[in-house]
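Fig. S4 source data, part A: sequence.
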Amino acid sequence: MSRNQESGSAVRATIRDVASAAKTGKTSVSRYLNGEKNLLSDDLKERIERAITLLNYQPSQMARSLKSGQTRLIGLILADITNPYSVDVMRGVEAACRQQGLTLLVCNTNNQLDQEKHYLQLLSSYRVDGMVVNAVGMREAAISTLQQAQLPMVLIDRKVANFSCDVVGLDNAQATTMVTDHLLQQGFEAILFLSEPMTINTRLDRLHTFLQRMQREPQHIAEQGEVELSDTAGLETLLRDFVSRYPQKRKAVLAANGALTLLVARAMRKLELVWGQDIGLLGFDELEWAELAGVGITTLKQPTYDMGVAALEQLVTRIQGSQEPIRDQEFSGELIVRGSTAKA
């Protein structure tokens, strides 16, 4: 009888308890647990298995990680977990982790640089094997923290200046050219590119591509605007002014991400602007409600789940010691056309 049974307590069984119950040594039990069953006789394997079941023995993952040098833990840092983009990325990373036998630790920075640095340090202290990071900014101090940790890492969606790292994201040039071409082909003459402040490369890449494409159409009007997601009054003012400037032209708004698309749709409703009739509307990121909103909202769908899977797979290659050159994996977007960008 083990000391757990004698005392009637809930003390966790140890490898010594299993060895005693199986009438063998700790070395044999360790071999069984570490996948070296071929070194054990069938009778011994059965005894160890019965002892593990009887004692409800669960190996200490911390002890095993100390011995192997790996925790089998992966960190995922998201800039905004409320964003549908982030949720789909997380689903892809988590599914790939399960397939690889890894455990995922998820951290949400809420777009706060201080929180990002905190989680970078925290995950490093947990000795995760690597991290997938959807960066807020990771400037200077945060980058220094990462470099000191020397952990394998893959950035998703957003690059970081002066930081050499694998990146998985959308082909922003291809996607932005596609959506701009669509609006032009649908007969829109004045287009407003709306985004949150230009603090990350993704927004800048989309804006620059939009402006470059519109430069080839001098008879059309290209405008840009920046707004914080919390500034609903500022957004309404931007839209009202844009509409009033071009009363005789077909106008459209191009929103740089899904969160902003939702706010633009709400602002248009408040201003009594009907998308697909008074104004065009196209947003990056496919949203579950987009097909149900009025005549439907045209979106640029990103393969976010697949991007999450690819990020984890690339991270695993780094954890395993790959020294291949830094990779920048770019995925193509898909245009989902709905009534919000219909021709007049």
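Fig. S4 source data, part B ends here. The chain is about 45% helix and 15% strand.
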